Structure to design on (247 residues):
């Protein structure tokens, strides 16, 4: 193999009228990494307890999203497992959330914490609070380049989310974001679950026998702060499911 020419040698050859060929580097985006073999969802998800369900999510290879993940965003919050008063479900993890290993980080995380504080809640485990909450994502592994998950990827992760709901038996489920809402409402609403988020919010849905309230994702509210008033109305509606207002 010939040694590569340095810039000085190339300049000398150019002065002599000698054309030098050089390979065109492959763009980083076109460099392919070998695919990992996929496998079916683990058996018996519907019978697993919290600990074994978490282990199954961390090692799941049922779709291609497993190939680029750093963490499986299984759950975080003021309690590490059920029962819980609140189950808050976000959209698919972003790159930042995948690296951090939890949902709602960075600037949107600050807004999310402010929303919780306004409701008298906290996701910190060391804060004394009578209400417990668990935070998870509709899809556990982040899609590359923050793209929208495919229908198959959503379907695979839904099995984990449904088992989480069954184990937690939350007093209320709060879906933050269109993907979270549509994933949770697919079985009960069918095609109607694909409506815009604005059509799904402002009412109480039912999922697995638990009340579900839909609202905007904090990332959206950072882009559209004028909708924060609508989001607060949704949070009040969710609070009423946990602490009904006496007549």
């Amino acid at each position: 193999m010939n040694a590569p020419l340095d810039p000085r040698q190339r300049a000398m050859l150019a002065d002599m009228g000698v054309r030098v060929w050089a390979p065109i580097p492959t763009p980083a985006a076109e460099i392919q990494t070998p695919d990992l073999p996929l496998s079916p969802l683990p058996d018996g998800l519907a019978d697993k307890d919290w600990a074994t369900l978490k282990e199954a999510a961390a090692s799941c290879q049922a779709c291609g999203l497993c190939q680029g993940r750093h963490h499986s965003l299984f759950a975080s919050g003021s309690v590490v497992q059920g029962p819980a008063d609140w189950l808050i479900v976000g959209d698919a993890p972003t790159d930042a959330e995948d690296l951090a290993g939890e949902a709602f980080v960075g600037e949107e995380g600050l807004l999310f914490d402010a929303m919780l504080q306004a409701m008298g809640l906290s996701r910190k485990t060391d804060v004394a609070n009578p209400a417990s909450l668990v935070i998870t994502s509709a899809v556990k592994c982040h899609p590359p380049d923050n793209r929208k998950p495919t229908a198959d990827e959503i379907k695979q992760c839904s099995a984990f989310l449904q088992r989480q709901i069954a184990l937690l038996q939350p007093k209320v489920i709060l879906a933050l974001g269109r993907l979270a809402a549509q994933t949770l409402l697919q079985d009960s609403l069918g095609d109607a679950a694909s409506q815009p988020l604005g059509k799904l919010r402002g009412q109480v849905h039912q999922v697995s026998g638990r009340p579900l309230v839909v609202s905007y994702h904090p990332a959206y509210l950072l882009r559209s702060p004028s909708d924060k008033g609508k989001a607060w109305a949704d949070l009040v509606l969710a609070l009423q499911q946990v602490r009904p207002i006496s007549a």
Q: What stands out?
A: The first helix runs from residue 7 to 15. The chain has one domain: 64-242. Residues 23-34 have pLDDT under 50 and may be disordered.
